[in-house]
Amino acid sequence: MDGIPAYNYLNTPKGWKSWLLTRDHKRIGLMYLFAIMFFFMIGGVFALLIRIQLLTPNQALVRPETYNQLFTLHGAVMIFLFIIPSIPASLGNFVLPQLLGAKDVAFPRLNLASWYIYVVGALFLIYSIFSGAADTGWTFYTPYSTQTTTSVIATTLGVFILGFSSIFTGLNFIVTVHKLRAPGMTWFSMPLFCWGLYATAIIQVLATPVLGITLILLILERLFGIGIFDPAMGGDPVLYQHFFWFYSHPAVYIMILPGMGIISETISVFSHKKIFGYKAIAFSSLGIAFVSFMVWGHHMFTSGQSEIAAMIFSFLTFLVGIPSGIKVFNWLATMYKGSISLAAPMIYTIMFLILFSIGGLTGIVLGALSVNVHMHGTYFVVAHFHYVMMGGTVMAFLAGLHYWWPKIWGRLYSEFWARVGALLIFIGFNMTFFSQFILGAKGMPRRYSTYLDQYQPLHGFSSVGSFVLGAGFVVMAVYLIYSLFRGKPAGNNPWGGLTLEWTTTSPPPPENFIETPKITHGPYDYDKVIADNG
Amino acid sequence: MKDNGNLFLPSGHSTIAPGTDALFDFIYYVSIVFFAIVVFAIVYSVWRFRRRKNAGLTSGVAQNTTLEILWTAIPTVLVLIVFAWGFKGYLRLYIIPKDAMEIKVTGQRWFWSFDYPDGATSVNDLVVPVGKPVKLLMSSKDVIHSFFVPSFRIKMDVLPNRYTMTWFEATDTGAYDLFCTEYCGAKHSSMIGKVRVVGEREYAQWLESSSKAGEGMPVEDYGAKLYVQKACITCHSVDGKASTGPTFLGLFGEQVKLEGGGTATVDENYLRESILSPQAKIAMGYQPVMPTFQGILKDKQIDALIAYIKSLKKNGNK
Amino acid sequence: MHNTAGGHPAHLQHHFSDSEQQASASKLGMWLFLLTEMLLFGGLFAAYSIYRAWNPEMFYEAHKQLNVQLGMINTIVLITSSVTMALAIRSIQLNKRKIAVRFLIATLLFAAVFLVIKYFEYSHKFHLGQLPGKYYTFTGLQGANPHIFFSIYFMMTGLHGIHVIGGMGLIGWMLSRTTRNHFSPEYYTPLEMTGLYWHLVDLIWIFLFPLLYLIG
Q1: Which of A68, A331, A366, A369 to mutate to test the interface with B (most CBs of B within 10 A)?
Q2: Cβ A449–B150 below 8 Å, yes or no?
């Protein structure tokens, strides 16, 4: 196959109206991709400002009040505008129907609506930045959030609206997986990324409405002094924490499960070997989704809750960690006796395995009650969640991005520069966040705009690391954008994959498949089939 | 047992710390083992099974029930051990010794105040005797704070309209950092204190002297001490620098504009009112965030602070 | 049956292989959506339970301020509207379009009656000062924090009322499409989905009514 195919979803149909009113899941996925990358950059800028401030304890860059707004915005933008939609709405949207052999998702118009709802929610958040950005932390704890004069309502309304986007995406994916698999593709012969998206979608549908009602209650409290979280009026501020974490804990599995789904794909393709433990991985996704609803109290061990509650939450927290461990072992077993290529997607896959393992193991530290008492509210927690969210989800996202980039655009990027970027990111990431484990264990609290002198060496080191990390992303942006103009045409199947998206052209035609695909082999049958590299 | 900490943890100085640290060490070393396995597996596979020319077909072995059971069961057993150990330590933190001496802790934006059994009070400095269990009965006057002493490995949220409790028994004399660790607004990062652990006799002496504090020194000097001790320094400078509250330098005798219109002269009555009912008059351009010191400062102490503020004239005179 | 030149029904979207698949997908989608609605209200039911457990006497006294007769009438009104909605769908299944239109109009009328009665209840409370949170000025109730009951009352019935209004919009749209002959015994899925939504709105009220108006 020589050049980019003339007929593909990018140029058919033509015109900006055909994009704004598209029902093509690939175009919607692409629009989401641009948006989330944009907000990742915005959130990253906030992060760099935070790290510049924390380079020294002298409050050199911003006043404490502004710093408090910076970390609130960093969290809110990264979580609600970037990471929650990231994999499902961009890569998931693009690839899920193709993996299933379908022409589109179940409800294409709802998909477009999800996109526009996302845009509206984003606009509210952006507006709130300029109207007196919230300074409550992304967790909006009461009573502080009901009293502060910053624009909490604009921010929480934005998040509320974004929640609908997430719910509709999840709903769409569940129905797609149930109803639109190609004939012959059973539940246990569909690719594991679909299982990951499916488990994620269950959480999106069940947990997000609870965030919705929580934010409504918060807004009503601010507007009408309802008093539900105000102790002076018979309310309970800790009740807010229960409501909030009931969503926000499952939310972190919304973040990681799709990433794990990607890793199942890339590790199989780039080890050129059948995935080990398909059913174990599939069921572990469902298990994680199920147990994730029962552990929210581990964010509240020092909140004054009862010892019985703490015990139950701690116990279940350890249980929810086991399925993730099972996945890691199955992925490692997949590599064994494979035929491993270290292309960029595999580099990121390996980075995921290393960094997510660290993140997960430090979750064990935090789940242990007596140790949690010491670590809660410190930089140890900050390091833990950055290891799982960035070292985990973002690395998996990047693996998926590099894996499907040729399919999305029909072009290859420079492997050399991809490795340069990956190296900078790996080094920068560990510099930034490993030091924060030590900072936190030594007692450094979170959300401090300044600190005692004894913490300066580690903070300084972390801040330098954040710029190395940022440089890695700049390199990535450059070579990816360059590839759009000068990248070698990719052909149908540059990686030799066996899932259905690789049977179409790169980029694919608008309808994905001209004829309904015939399923002749499983998605990981590297012991039976040699892929056609087209 | 001396707890000297490790790469991660600071040295521990309470009876709870060794237990917490031992569990941390266990998790740490087990984690290193598992992490080493993961890294080794990756490195080995990448080296040994690196793709040669053409990929070809690979092994179809894709499941092994024994392995699945093993790598499910072993981690499960390990985490259950960690769970039980952690819960045991947690109970030790929660079950407060009956003979513990009780100190009332009040968190407010943005300082800690402590009330001792005999009526003494202190701000930001928690003075306790070594080797004796101390119970902390805590509540907040405004938003949620959290009381954290890293060297003791204790932490407990401090809530409005409710009491929470924790306890500790310090094992070594010294001064240990006390942080607020639940975000509470603008000066959250400054809500820092110290736990001063002293010998029993010293503690008794301190209690006695705190009621006689200020005797035998010029009243402005006592005021200067209180300016620091009672945390006025958190929000008011004495060198003209801008901060959360107006600077004290040259403040006395000034005419200040007020929020909502009107002016006031900064005299003794104005200062006393600002200390006891800070919301009554807000200087223009400032936020109404000053807490009241009713019940925290005795009249004698208010007098001393006023004297100190009076002495802070501009143009070099102290 | 309206077929396009390609030989498939006009209502069949291109990514579905046949009408059954499309209808089945729509049903699953709607049930999932209803699940999210139940979780949304679930948070309020949880708040109700918690505050009721903390203030049992106050809840008992305060709930007597509600007008049980009006609440009962509203319950019957909503249940009846669910029946007329179901009958509208049944009529389309039997290809009786004009009767379906009448049942849809009846459903809308009953929904409107529900809202009118709620309007009277709300304005009575406004008049007495039985308002949520810091606006509460009613003096006729003893005990601590009686405003909590009314805060919860207004939040639950208010959110429900918003869903009634939304449902009326949906039913109005279905009415318009039915009069324009969009539905037939072979295809009436949107009508069916609207019916499911409306039944949930009714069901939520059937929980709200006893919890707020009846139990002592």
Answers
A1: A369
A2: no
Beta bridge partners of C187: C184
C41 touches chain A (CB under 8 A): yes
Cα–Cα nearest to B230, from B92, B122, B105, B99: B122
The answer to which of A172-181, A219-228, A370-379 has the lowest mean pLDDT is: A219-228
Residues of A near C (Cβ–Cβ under 8 Å) read: 97, 102-108, 110, 167, 171-172, 174-175, 178-180, 205-210, 212-214, 216-217, 220-221, 224-228, 233-236, 239, 243, 511, 516
Q: Of A272, A200, A189, A108, which Cα lies nearest the Cα of A517?
A: A189
* Maximum Cα interatomic distance, chain C, rounded to a whole number of Å: 73
pLDDT at A533: 63
- C33–chain A Cβ distance below 8 A for any pair: yes
* Buried b / exposed e along C135-166 (16+ C-beta atoms within 10 A): bbebeebeeebbbbbbbbbbbbbebbbebbee
Percent of residues, chain C, with pLDDT higher than 70: 96
pLDDT band at B214 (very low <50, low <70, confident <90, very high): low
pTM: 0.91
- Interface partners of A (3+ CB pairs, < 8 Å)? B, C
Say how many CB pairs under 8 Å bridge A and C: 109
Beta strands in A442-534 (DSSP E): none
CA A441 to chain centre: 26
The DSSP 8-state label assigned to residue B312 in this structure reads: -
Residue A65 identity (one-letter amino acid)? E
Closest chain B C-alpha to A116 CA, distance in angstroms = 34
pLDDT in tens, A147-164: 998 999 999 999 999 999
Residues in B touching A362 (Cβ below 8 Å)? 31
- The 10s digit of each residue's pLDDT in A246-291 is 999 999 999 999 999 999 999 999 999 999 999 999 999 999 999 9
Which tens digit of pLDDT belongs to each residue from B53-100? 776 888 888 999 999 999 999 999 999 999 999 999 999 999 999 999
Question: Which of C162, C190, C158 is CA-nearest to residue C85?
Answer: C190
Which phi and psi angles does B169 have, rounded to 5°?
A: -130, 110
Amino acid of residue A461: F
pLDDT tens sequence across A36-65 = 999 999 999 999 999 999 999 988 899 999
**Collapsed DSSP state (helix, strand, coil) of residue B176:** strand
What domains, with CATH codes, occur in chain C?
19-213 (1.20.120.80)
Burial of A411 (0-12, 13-18, 19+ CB in 10 A): buried
pLDDT of residue B159: 95
pLDDT attached to residue C2: 47
Q: Are B146 and B158 in contact (CB under 8 A)?
A: yes
CB contact under 8 A, B154 and A335: no
Q: What is the dihedral of CA B86, B88, B89, B93, to 10 degrees?
A: 130
Tokens representing A123 are: 């606009």
pLDDT digit string, tens, across residues A183-209: 999 999 999 999 999 999 999 999 999
Q: Do C42 and A209 touch (CB under 8 A)?
A: yes
d(CA C171, CA C165): 10
**What is the band of C6 on the pLDDT scale with cuts at 50, 70, 90?**
low
List domains and CATH numbers for chain A.
27-503 (1.20.210.10)
The angle, 0 to 180 degrees and rounded to 10, between the axes of the packed helices A344-367 and B65-94 is 40
Q: Do A213 and C33 touch (CB under 8 A)?
A: no
- CB pair distance less than 8 Å for B59 and A527: yes
